[in-house]
Amino acid sequence: MQALWMVLASFWFALMAVGIKYASNSFGTFELVFYRGLVSMVFMAIVVRARGATLSTPVPMMHVWRSTIGVLSLGSWFYAIAHLPLATAMTLNYMSGVWVAAFIVGGALLYGDAQKQGPLLGTVLLGFAGVVMTLRPTIDQNQLFAGVIGLLSGMGAALAYMQVTALGKVGEPEERTVFYFSVGTAIVGGIGVLFTDITPWSEVRTQDALWVIPIGILASLGQWCMTRAYRKGATLVVASMQYSGIVFAALFSLLLFGDKIAPMGWLGIAVIVVSGVLATVLRARAMPDTPAEEH
């Protein structure tokens, strides 16, 4: 049941997205990335100290790689959001679950163990079908380059998730992994701010400024739960559970912003829920093994 941490992570990320939607009325994208990383970095440093751990790591380059691909994926996704319909950008980014499955099945083929992965792979593909049904993405011919960037954002996210699993294998605590990713996010956001306009605080609306700290904390909680899920859960099940973020986002849009969900969207949400349930049931019936054994 460790994969259920991914459902909780998706909930925190969806709440964070709500905060970003409100805060974006006063702040630019790079400003939000910077503040998110800075607040998360401070928050996770406090958590690390409170748990009696240390920020010193025996595998600094693994954190550098995880932060680099994670931030590049985040930047690619922001580019896709700016140049594609939002539903299309989100769909391409959520292909990370399909990429994770492809990496795992590819590795299993090398070891002659792909047959065992078939049913769980099916739940990942079923969940992604639900995402497409919910978001109904479209793309024009002049958006092909942005589409490729969006596709790369999903691949980068998948590589970042796999690196999280690798960090778990070497015994890195989740909170330390999240801290160093927050550092990378703050650095990239800070660099971006240097080349863009900074919103003077005198022009920031109070109701938007109040979201800055919650966004960073919610990002921390989401990353923390996601890291634990990929570190301790079965990777294909976690990849399937990841799609629950679309469900939470759709419901928040309905309840908070008055967005309508078409009948096809409700059907897609049902498919996503069913895929998560099936993945959990299949995993429970299978012989237990570790995420590392699935690679």
What would your notes on this structure say?
The chain is an all-alpha fold. It has one domain. It is built from 13 helices and no strands. Helix 6 packs antiparallel against helix 13. The C terminus is likely disordered.
Q: What's the quick description here?
A:
By secondary structure, the protein is mainly α. It has helices spanning 4-23, 29-50, 60-83, 86-93, 96-110, 118-135, 144-169, 174-194, 206-209, 212-232, 235-241, 244-257, 263-285. The chain is globular.
Instruction: Provide the residue-averaged pLDDT.
Output: 84
Residue stretches low in confidence (pLDDT < 50, at least 5 long) are 287-295
Q: How far do the termini sit from each other?
A: 19 Å
Which structural class is indicated by helix and strand composition? mainly alpha
Total beta-strand segments: 0
How many domains? The number is 1
The main sheet comes to: none
State the helix count.
13
Approximate shape: globular
Query: In what range is the share of β-strand residues?
Result: under 5%
Kindly state the percentage of residues in helix.
over 70%
Provide the gyration radius in Å: 19 Å
Taken in chain order, the helices and strands follow as HHHHHHHHHHHHH
Task: List its traits.
globular, 295 residues, disordered C terminus, mainly alpha, single chain
